[in-house]
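>> received
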Amino acid sequence: MEKFNRPYLIAEISGNHNGSLKKAKKLIRLAKNYGADCVKLQSYTPDSLTINVKNKYFMIKDGLWKNQYLYELYEESQTPLSWIKELFVYAKKTGIECFSTPFDKEGVDLLVKMNAPFIKISSFEMNDLDFVEYIAKKNKKIIISTGMANLNEINETVKLIRKYNKKNLIIMHCVSGYPSNTKDMNIETIKDLKERFNCTIGLSDHSMNDVSCIVAYAYGARVFEKHFIDSRKNKGPDSKFSLEPEELKNLKNNLELSKEAIGKVNYKIKESEKKNLVFRRSLFAIKDIKKGEFFSRENIKSIRPGYGLKPSHLKNIMNKKSLFRIKRGTPLKFKHFLSDA
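>> returned
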């Protein structure tokens, strides 16, 4: 995919709009202005994810959302399906791509109708093979995240997708910790995923620094997803692992710099190096040398600057006679000892 010849940065809005359509549009606008290539929504209703039951099975026991019931969390965090069309239109008007993660078949059908550039399968749904198959049959570009999945599960999901959709797959290495610890990222996995599945690889990153993304780019990742918020002070379900505008901008700049730094295999002298060649060592007369005098370690030496012959010629010059009188501090040239130079 040609657009992935450079770092492609997705700003994940998720529930950071805090239930406000106006705020969702603001986040789309900010994402565009601060360097994102794309914004991602999540298309679901609480009923597409769980049921409204308050017992011990539906209570979150640890982490950021501890002591909340699933239904209530999803009710708070949802991006209503009725917003999707309006947000897609607004993103197009703003000049940024927009897609979504659906969590039921209705959400998938809506994204197909909206001609979304991608359909995202979340880490939590990637082992729901009936749902995966439904998406794969739509023959759209698919992004899957691999958080919590072992290799057998990834193989199974990829095999199913490729049964119906052989080319349009992006696999996102992901650690589903909120926020993720850098020590858990294991970016080496990026290279392995690329070799195993021969497709575009990305990183869905929930850590609060740029390190994993920058290292992942060096290992072959080209698509990067970060949760995005206007200000963490505004709170929200994902605020603690979301980047603010300036942080998003810095990440994009650092990814672009990473692309420049990686470059290609190149052993030629770089343009920025040429002016410094003069500071390399070369052969100089360190004493006055008479015409006919033999060159020796007492009268010539490899020193800086680099106006003379390369130091590799030192042994070839030893015990040859000087054809000229040479003043101390003169760079040696072939003419000083070769008559036909």
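>> The chain has a mean pLDDT of 95.
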